[in-house]
Fold each of these.
Amino acid sequence: MFIATQRIRVEWAHCDPAGILFNPHYYLWMDSGTHALLQASGFDLIGEPSRDKRFRGCPLVASNMSFSKPLYFGDVVLCSSQVERFGNTSFVVAHQFSRADQPEPVASGSEVRVWGYSDSTDPSKLVARAMPDDVRAMLSVDKTIDVTV
């Protein structure tokens, strides 16, 4: 599967008073990892809404995290994101976090997302549609890309 990796430095603002990473930041990084994965695979998540007026993105419908070791102020984290499974209208993105200098994971999580469109009868409502075949193909390529900015 296509994997997007990014390095993230744990900054003081990410930490609690003890200098330990405050865990909600993992959820922000998972969201960022999913969007980076789509962009890096070749899907223009930013430009798609201008081409397809009904496309509304990939809404999150479930998420979870498991923590095995803490991260601290100054650590550099490697976040690896990839599609774990495709459903009919949903897909699961797996995220693994490790210190950049150590291979064992410190945390892992996943997100369930749907391919979202505005409803044709009520544009204020979202409906899930099947992910386009070309996007599935792009996310299925055996390749790893570092998307660190």
Note: The chain is about 20% helix and 40% strand.
Amino acid sequence: MELSITLIIIIITGLISFSAFSNHKIIDDLIFYPPSVTERGQWYRFFTCGLIHADIGHLLFNMISLYMFGEFVERSFSTPILFGEKGKFLYLGMYVLALFVCLVPTFIKHKNDYYYRSLGASGAVSAVVFAGILFDPTNKIGFFFIPPVIPGYIFGPLYLIASTYLEKQAKDNVNHSAHIWGALFGIGFIIAAAAILKSDYQPAEQFWLKIKYSLNL
């Protein structure tokens, strides 16, 4: 049985994260530390920080979210009407690029901040989640203890608003900026890729059509 790209990402991330829980050197080597990029050119940290997590809860939340949305998004990428045989490579490309793009604003803000560090795959996972919302905006989504009763097209804006508010408050140790930019990148990547590759599927148009149909408009 062939493993999906989503499952391969989950397995690799899980193995490295679990190894890092008991080995602080792995964390130091892989974590996103802006001064290391600014002064030593260690650009790889944009990507490797997505392979480690703060604790088991952080890891499970990200990987469960990735599994729930990733399998659907990966299949959608590979449908003949969208990207066909290129789908799996484009899906992987979106995930990897999201790791980088979601941290660019963070890097600009903290490039000389010796006290700042960031880790986790949340930005890339947000890209996958919002790609899923773009493909199926009427699908019901929950959040933590909230059951899956909120349509994606309502959940998405609420999530972005809440993340923006929390980012401005800066009262926790969560990089909400990465969530926001990862989510926006996921949407933008699909729309851009569909246009560049001249796909018959028009993501933005289909998004609105599905919402209108669900509302009987």
Note: The chain has a mean pLDDT of 93.
Amino acid sequence: MKIPMSPPKLTEIMLKSKPSDLIRIMDIVSSSLVKDRYLHWDELRYRKPPEGCTLEEWWVGLKLRRLAMVKSIPLCDKHGDNFLFTQPDPVLEALYNITLGAGGSIEIPTEITEQEKDRYYFTSLIEEAITSSQLEGASTTRDAAKEMLRTNRPPRDHSEQMILNNFQTMKRIGELRYEDLDTALVFEIHRIITEGTLSDSKASGQFRTQNEDIKVWTEKGLLLHSPPPASELPDRMKIMCDFANGKTPDTFVHPALRAIILHFWLAYDHPFNDGNGRTARALFYWSMLRSDFWLFEFISISSIIRKAPAQYTRSFLYTESDDNDLTYFVLGQIKVIMKAMEELVQYVKRKTKQVRAMEAELRGVEVLNHRQKALISHALRHPQHRYSIESHKRSHNVVYQTARSDLLNMVARSLLMKSKIGRRLYFSPVPDLNEKLAVLG
């Protein structure tokens, strides 16, 4: 990870400039954006400035345009300076689209909402649990992690424990969405996230201490972030919770923007000796669900972040290096959110096609319920797959007896074969499943 170059100091450049120069620069630089992008100095310095001004003057013009629409939040850096944000057109447009899509309605076919909602909810929890853990170093395979969560087996190692913890956290976040945030609740979330993964179990759900020199480094040993002193954490956490609950600031902050800033806030303060990134993303979900952005039960932001982790880190660094301007982090997370929402839309399109194909395959088979039809449709495409009562139960969010009855009923109809390994029952598709379905139909 390359550390971005810090911008030149605005005050120093302005002291060297005449008032007429500033008027000329403002006439040339009419927007805070560069071709619809909110560029950091580290990006701008490679570009050709507009005719009539130098590169540094161009930067001054952009900064002055940004300062004209800046808003402050109660988060302060280690020097007591507030963090700020602006809302250029790309932010406003994205916030509108998030409100429309995540808090309003998304066109999901009836059969998807009825038959696949619970299944996709469970799948999205798994995806977020795995990728959020992988961002923090978990190294188990996706197949092993999915198998653990679907069958409810105990984790085998540290990585699987991280994933299980994240899974449990995401489920708990759904239950906590309408509770006000306070320090005790943040500690509860951190305890779930870190259970059984810390070298010192007492550090779970506790602030880092003054004796712990917590810093964020690159793999090559470059310092990325040095958080505020541990002695300040109780007060800082109280201020963060007030912000999260909508008590501050006095000006309006869009709920999605508030959730994004809360994500940054926890990560910046880094209140724990481990698990800060996962806790920050969990609080983002809490905030979005609290604001009735229901779609966020079904999407994974960590899966998008993991595809471009350097961009995620860079958005933190741009913010800290340019006068605490949160707009860089906001824009970075907005891109993540929009991509995650788009992936859900694409999933719905694929699933609609699959469901219609399944209905064509199983047309006339009225003796099977929608859970059994979903399993049979999967079995037709994966003839070697094994199913268990526990995996069927968790995939469809039903009780054990319902899952057991579904599977035994399909055994009785000669669609599945039953076997026993140890004390656990497994179910596999019969070799001539297509023929059996034809007879059943």
Note: The longest strand covers residues 71-76.
